[in-house]
């Protein structure tokens, strides 16, 4: 396999029943590479172990004074040297390819799972563990996959070596054949302890990585409250625990390595003493003694592969277990099937205990009038889209009763930010954690949960309240799949990113450089919160989806800029369906239609000014005041709110 063929078009469906089964699945996917590495490993090892034979023949030829024998020995050594060189080069090449291919496959599986789960991934698995799995654990898994073929080649080589010595020099060959299995199995009693200590070290290292990741992510907050020293002391303590665990683990593996050196040395001494006596008695020739001596001396090389495969498996097994734990996560909160197949759909799981859905708090009274009859099937399941035509039409949520008319700018007002986030996720279809009684959102009468995830994402784009900016240039950031109708300039203008472009131009490597080619640091840390929000908004506008759902897109923007952004989005999205979840009066006033969601259901709809006059609960959310009592006069407050809006 050539590395240029990576990444894989399809990494496959892994076996997620356990860590060892996942490793076996990876090995099976690299059968061709494993066989190639096995063949080159056999060539290398047999050439190495054949060198003593050539040396022994040369010594015996000198003793016998045979020029022809010496010439044959020299030819054999030259042939073995060429085979050794070829085998070493090709084994290294094939082993590296096997390592990289296995690591790439695991990384692709993790990336696919991250794209499938979205923001739900970090709600179920600590960010530090995700980082550890996608970096160090991937390398350890690749190491084991690569080491298996070299171990198999070494095992076959030892069998061939012992059999050859028994045939060539039965007196000494039998001793070696009986001793080699003992040497290979001698470290086994020490492996459980070494493995336990290695697992302990990795667990502590994983906790340290999680703590470091969380600390870096919240560094600004820590500086604001003066908590840097506290977290530094915590990390220092955890780091020392990792160091002590690493020392204990290293001692165990050092003992195993010492056994692997001491026992072959004792065997070598015994073979030399016994062989010398046989040579003095005339039972074996000097050349045969030299051959056996050289073979025993070189047997340490294949024996070391037994130690390496034990280390590779002990390190990769917990890594594979962690990878399986991440890959087994499924949309809906339940793990995927044991066979590793993807779940049949989001309705195959039960309710999520971590985040209640709106249906767990049903509103009292009849359903809102905006919910269409037959908005979902009788059991809330998704009805597949018959045909492959484009999706379009009104966006309807049968759970809350929210309706976003096609081609209009609709604003949704929720008093609970978490509830707003769950509603935004549900409006995109295929929610990662559907609650009990979940019913699919419908776009133009088609259940989004019933169409393929990629197709639903192409039709409805959801930008959550904490969008992530990947590192790279601004041009790369805005290079996203799109309809092509909106270019980067128009999107940046609509999102009012002029000050962001000025800041990037100043940060350009060359004076007067193009801000589009200026690099943005990881997660946009070099920008302010408002600048990051507007760049994320521009990225969503460039995509130009049929339906765009924005969750608090201007929460970190000042009022003056927010007003410009509201008008820019309205102009650019004219004739396209746009849903904004916000409580900002500036955005609400720019919307064609505003829907108040209270208690998980749409309870009122109209324009911003209409709802201010007629709906006390709406006024309470928008003005961020307590809901007024029925007997309280609110006329003066209403006037003040309208003026501020």
Question: Which key phrases capture this entry?
Answer:
645 residues, alpha/beta, disordered C terminus, six-stranded mixed beta sheet, four-stranded antiparallel beta sheet, single chain
Draw up the topology in text.
Elements: H1 19-29, H2 31-64, H3 67-117, H4 120-124, H5 127-168, H6 170-185, H7 191-217, H8 219-225, H9 228-280, H10 286-298, H11 300-327, E1 395-397, E2 402-404, E3 409-414, H12 417-427, E4 442-443, E5 446-447, H13 453-459, E6 460-463, E7 472-473, H14 474-477, H15 488-494, H16 498-506, E8 519-520, H17 529-543, E9 547-551, H18 559-572, E10 577-581, H19 585-590, E11 593-598, E12 601-606, H20 608-614, H21 616-622, H22 635-644
Parallel strand pairs: 3-10, 3-11, 6-9, 9-10
Antiparallel strand pairs: 1-2, 1-4, 4-5, 7-8, 11-12
Description:
- It is a single chain.
- The protein is an alpha/beta fold and 645 residues long.
- Helix content is 60%, strand content 7%.
- Strands 6-9-10-3-11-12 form a 6-stranded mixed β-sheet, with helices on both faces. A 4-stranded antiparallel β-sheet has the order 2-1-4-5, with no helix packed on it.
- Strand 4 and strand 5 (446-447) form a beta hairpin.
- The radius of gyration is 34 Å and the shape is elongated.
- The model is unreliable at 337-387 and 626-645 (pLDDT under 50).
């Amino acid at each position: 396999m050539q590395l240029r063929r990576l990444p894989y078009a399809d990494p496959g469906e892994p076996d997620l029943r356990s860590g060892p089964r996942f490793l076996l699945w990876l090995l099976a996917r690299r059968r061709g590479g494993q066989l190639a590495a096995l063949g080159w490993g056999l060539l290398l090892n047999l050439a190495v172990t054949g060198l003593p034979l050539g040396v022994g023949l040369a010594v015996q030829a000198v003793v016998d004074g045979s020029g022809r024998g010496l010439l044959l020995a020299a030819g054999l050594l030259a042939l073995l040297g060429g085979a050794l060189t070829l085998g070493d080069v090709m084994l290294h090449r094939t082993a590296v390819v096997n390592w990289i291919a296995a690591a790439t496959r695991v990384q692709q599986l993790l990336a696919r799972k991250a794209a499938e789960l979205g923001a739900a991934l970090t709600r179920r698995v600590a960010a530090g563990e995700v980082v550890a799995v996608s970096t160090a654990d991937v390398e350890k898994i690749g190491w084991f996959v690569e080491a298996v073929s070299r171990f198999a080649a070494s095992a076959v080589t030892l069998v061939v070596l012992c059999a050859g010595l028994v045939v060539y020099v039965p007196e000494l060959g039998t001793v070696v054949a009986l001793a080699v299995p003992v040497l290979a199995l001698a470290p086994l009693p020490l492996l459980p302890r070494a493995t336990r200590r290695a697992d302990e070290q990795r667990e502590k290292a994983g906790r340290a990585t999680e703590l470091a990741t969380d600390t870096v992510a919240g560094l600004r907050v820590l500086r604001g409250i003066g908590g840097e020293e506290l977290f530094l002391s915590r990390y220092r303590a955890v780091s020392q625990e990792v160091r002590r665990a690493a020392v204990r683990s290293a001692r165990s593996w050092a003992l195993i390595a010492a056994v692997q050196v001491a026992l072959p040395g004792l065997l070598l001494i015994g073979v030399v003493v016994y062989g010398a006596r046989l040579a003095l008695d005339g039972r074996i020739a000097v050349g045969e003694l030299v051959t056996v001596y050289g073979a025993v001396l070189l047997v340490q090389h294949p024996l070391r592969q037994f130690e390496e495969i034990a280390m590779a498996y002990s390190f990769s097994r917990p890594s594979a277990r962690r990878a399986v734990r991440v890959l087994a996560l499924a949309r809906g909160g339940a793990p995927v099937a044991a066979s590793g197949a993807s779940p049949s759909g989001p309705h195959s799981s039960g309710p999520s205990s971590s985040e209640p859905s709106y249906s767990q708090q049903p509103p009292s009274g009849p359903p809102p009038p905006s919910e269409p009859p037959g908005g979902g099937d009788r059991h809330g399941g998704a009805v597949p889209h018959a045909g492959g035509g484009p999706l379009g039409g009104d966006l309807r949520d049968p759970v809350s009763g929210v309706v976003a008319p096609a081609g209009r700018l609709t604003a949704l007002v929720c008093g609970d930010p978490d509830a707003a986030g769950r509603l935004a996720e549900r409006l995109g279809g295929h929610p990662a954690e559907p609650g009990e009684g979940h019913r699919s959102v419908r776009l133009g009468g088609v259940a989004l949960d019933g169409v393929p995830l990629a197709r639903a994402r192409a039709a409805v784009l959801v930008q959550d309240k904490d969008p992530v900016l990947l590192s790279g240039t601004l041009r790369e950031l805005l290079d996203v799949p799109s309809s092509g109708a909106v270019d980067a300039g128009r999107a940046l203008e609509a999102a009012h990113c002029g000050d962001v472009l000025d800041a990037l131009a100043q940060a350009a490597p060359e004076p007067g450089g193009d801000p589009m080619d200026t690099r943005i640091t990881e997660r946009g840390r070099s920008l302010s919160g408002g600048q990051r929000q507007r760049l994320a908004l521009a990225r969503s506008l460039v995509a130009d989806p049929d339906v765009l759902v924005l969750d608090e897109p201007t929460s970190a923007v000042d009022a003056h800029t927010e007003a410009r952004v509201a008008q820019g989005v309205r102009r650019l999205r004219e004739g396209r369906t746009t849903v904004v979840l916000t409580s900002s009066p500036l955005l609400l006033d720019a919307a064609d239609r505003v829907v108040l969601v209270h208690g998980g259901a749409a309870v009122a709809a109209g324009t911003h000014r209409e709802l201010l006059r007629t709906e006390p609960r709406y006024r309470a959310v928008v003005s961020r005041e307590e809901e007024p009592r029925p007997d309280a006069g609110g006329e003066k407050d209403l006037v003040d709110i309208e003026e501020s809006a």
